[in-house]
Amino acid sequence: MKKKIGKAQLIHFIGIGGIGISSLARWFLSDRWIVSGSDLAANKITKELAREGVRICGGHKKTNVPRNAELVVYSQAVPAKNPELIEARRLKIPTLSYPQTLGKLTKTHTTIAIAGAHGKSTTTALTGLILKNAGLNPTIVVGTELKELGGKNFRKGGGNYLVIEADEWKASFLNYSPTLLIITNIDREHLDFYKNLGNVKNTFLKFIARTKSGGTLVLNKDNAVLAALAKRIAKISREKNIRVVWYSTKDPVAQAIRKIIKIPGEHNISNAVAAYAAARVLNVPQKKILSVIGVYHGSWRRFEYRGDFRVKSQESRVKQSVPIYDDYAHHPTEIAATLKGFREKFTTKNIICVFQPHQAKRLHSLFKEFICAFEAADTIVITPIYKVAGRDERISLRFSPEALARVMQKKYPRKPIFYLSDFKNLKNALTTLVTVPPTCAIGVSPKPKSRSNSRSEFGTGIKPAVVVMMGAGDIVQYTDALLTTNH
Question: Of 96, 120, 135, which residue constitutes the final position of a domain?
């Protein structure tokens, strides 16, 4: 897919607003292709792409497809009946999915792929930035936006190294054949596609077998599911002449990382150790690796501080600025690990987690796991589910967000847990939760406090709060509204 000399080639992306496919749009734009794309609705990414020179089309219509396009790339979430996909095929324009396109591009590079149910974006970011710091000049394709890349999810490198985030949904990563493969963990994720953990494990093993002969696997020894596959992985490694490196947060280097890392949580120690192990395989000096880990502050929607929500106590009229964070966690394992990280950082604060479930099938399949995922939070607000286009047909009442809140209330009767039916009520709800003692908020009178320990910023005995807006859907849009509010 190299650009022909003297000819401006056209490429069109269907679903260009996605975090993955938009990185490919930027890649082709950097290669001086004429790029257009469409999505159902405008978002932060489509607005950025428009400023960068991409022609953005609102909605999906067959007229959006340039008749002289060389290639049409579509998101995996795009249904077969999409009018642009149908039109492209009618016009006999070659069509490829996002992973198929990226797979072709990986063939011309020395590819380092980062896979796993959780931690892919952080590990990809750290690995790419370490290679950049070491002068290896990598191209980076990551599923988040990084300030180190100018707020983008893509970096065009001049070297032969390509660092990619390899998604397992719909077995996308089977399009890639990496030279170095990091697997952070295996978990019961994307069960709408895989149905069960056995299918997930078998697909990861297929991906492992796609590692190039003479390549290297960097695997998380601390993940029980992955570690249980050690014998099967060893067999593949012998047959394919692949080196296997196991890493752990018990490794000596983990202690050095704990002293310098800025992003909290044991899961991020693990992610950093993974990036360290991969970089050492590539002979990057330890000093250069640790220098990157020590200054990395995270990425878009990963423990991201967004600003403050200003509230005022109705009794004392004292104002308080409540820090607001965005986080992409949407699987029970991610939620538990992320909230534990917040608890480590904010040891004395009331952690209020506002959670938007993502995809009905995930909530249904992992309902029991969701019930226990929020233990590190003090207060939990569950919102309506974010329905994923093409993946959510209906929501079972037994496994709805409201049902989740009810079951959690029974399991944790002393913890304030609420279901918020409409996001328009979020500002008032958070104001109440921040300015009224939580026990009052759920109709239980607070225990009397002595004069010596009852003072706080409001003079009411309430701990200062921090709010975590959590989920992979559009909850991030509601954060923006909170930041402009003064009560």
Answer: 96
CB 123, CB 182: distance < 8 Å: yes
Single pTM value for the model? 0.81
For residue 3, tell me if it sits in a domain.
no
At 428-458, the pLDDT tens digits run 888 888 876 554 444 333 333 333 333 333 3
The amino acid at residue 145 is E
Q: How many CB atoms lie within 10 A of CB 205?
A: 15
Across 128-132, 313-317, 380-384, 404-408, least confident range: 313-317
CA end-to-end span of the chain: 55
Q: What is the pLDDT of residues 227-263, one digit of tens each?
A: 999 999 999 999 999 999 999 999 999 999 999 999 8
The answer to whether the Cα torsion of 452, 457, 460, 462 is positive or negative is negative
Alpha-carbon distance values, 174 to 206, 223, 245, 272, 381 (Å): 7, 21, 21, 25, 38
> Sign of the CA dihedral 159, 161, 167, 172?
positive
Q: Is 479 helix (H, G, I), strand (E, B) or coil?
A: helix
48-74 pLDDT tens trace: 999 999 999 989 999 999 999 999 999
Domain of 64 in residue numbering reads as 10-96
Q: What is the pLDDT of residue 31?
A: 93
Residue 316 sits in the same domain as residue 288: no
Q: Which of 293, 327, 348 is the last residue of a domain?
A: 293
- The domain total for the chain is 3
Contact 378, 350 (CB under 8 A): yes
Torsion of the alpha carbons at 321, 327, 332 and 336, rounded to the nearest 10: -50
Question: What is the spatial distance between Cα 368 and Cα 363, in angstroms, rounded to a whole number?
Answer: 9
The sheet carrying 304-312 orders its strands as 304-312, 319-327, 465-470, 350-355, 379-382, 417-419
Whether 2 is covered by a domain: the verdict is no
